[in-house]
Structure formats: structure tokens, C-alpha cells
Amino acid sequence: MPVAQKSGRLLAKRVHLRLSKSEPSGAKFTEEEILKQYSTDYKLIPTTVFSPTEYSFIGLSEEEAQKAYGADSIDVYHRETTPLQYSIYKQNTKLAYMKVIVLRDSLKVLGMHYFGPAADEVIGGFAVAMKLGMTKHDLDSTIGVHPSTSEDLFNLDVTKRSGEEFRKTEC
User: Fold this and answer.
1) pLDDT tens sequence across 92-115
2) Residue of 16, 113, 137, 146 marked catalytic
3) Annotated catalytic, 113?
4) Domain 44-154 falls in which CATH fold?
5) Nearest alpha-carbon partner for 135 in 100, 109, 99
6) pTM of the prediction?
7) How does residue 33 score in pLDDT terms, banded at 50, 70 and 90?
8) Residue ranges of the chain assigned to CATH 3.30.390.30
């Protein structure tokens, strides 16, 4: 459901509950409960730029995470890879790039960014996990769909801080 439609429905529910102060079942709600249950969380809305190669993200950007937590408090795991469907042609220039921004002490995922095929579907699938407080350990202990470009999100082991090679050159 689009953000505007979801926000509109939640607003209608809040207005209705404030006027009636109860659900049709008779359950009573305080203003705090109404706001907690029927408000939109704009911080974790998956977003896509629909271009020839899609770009999608959810959560904080690298810059926002650095500003909020400090550069020394975050790690950015990243990878560049060739999508399988383009790997047959050796002169291919189509790449995919992904990064996961993590709070170093708790390994909580603060943001995910993906530039590649079906980016909208890939990041859309992580929206619930992000809302539930996904950690880097959760990603590492999950197996991605093989063979897909998005499976690399479950195998990220190179951080920008390390300076190591982040381009995937083999299967």
C-alpha cells in the first residue's frame, strides 16, 4: 500500500477513535495507545528510484548514520558484483552495488542500499526485518536465494573501513 494511502487510513482510524474513544468491540483507547498503534513510522519506508538499473534503500544513508552516531560508531559493509544475467557477456558493464550500514557495538542494521536488478523487490523484502530491529548477525545467519544478486546481502564481509577489495570476482 502506498505511503499516502496507508497514512490516510491511519489518520481516519485515529480520528474515529478520538471521536468514539473505543473500538466497535467496546475496547477503550488512551491517546497514547491511539498514537502508538495508528501512526505512520516514516523512518523505515523502503524507497526506490526507478531507473534502467534500480536503486532502493531503507533506513539511514551512510552520511545520516555518521551524523547520528559518529563515523567511528558505524561500519559500512559493501560489495560490487556482476548480476548473473549479465555475467555471460564478458564485456558487460552492468554492475550491482550494495551496502549495509551497521552500528558497531550492537550490530543493529541502520540502513540498507541496493543498486541492481529488482532493487524494489529486494529492499521491500527487508522492510519488516528492519522494523523488527535486524542485526548484521541476522543477515549473516540467513541464506539468500541462489543464484541471485541479492544473495550477496547475506554474505557481506568487507567494510569500507578495512580498505579490502569489495568487488566480487567469482561465484
Assistant:
1) 556 889 999 999 999 999 999 999
2) 146
3) no
4) Enolase-like; domain 1 (3.30.390)
5) 109
6) 0.81
7) confident
8) 44-154
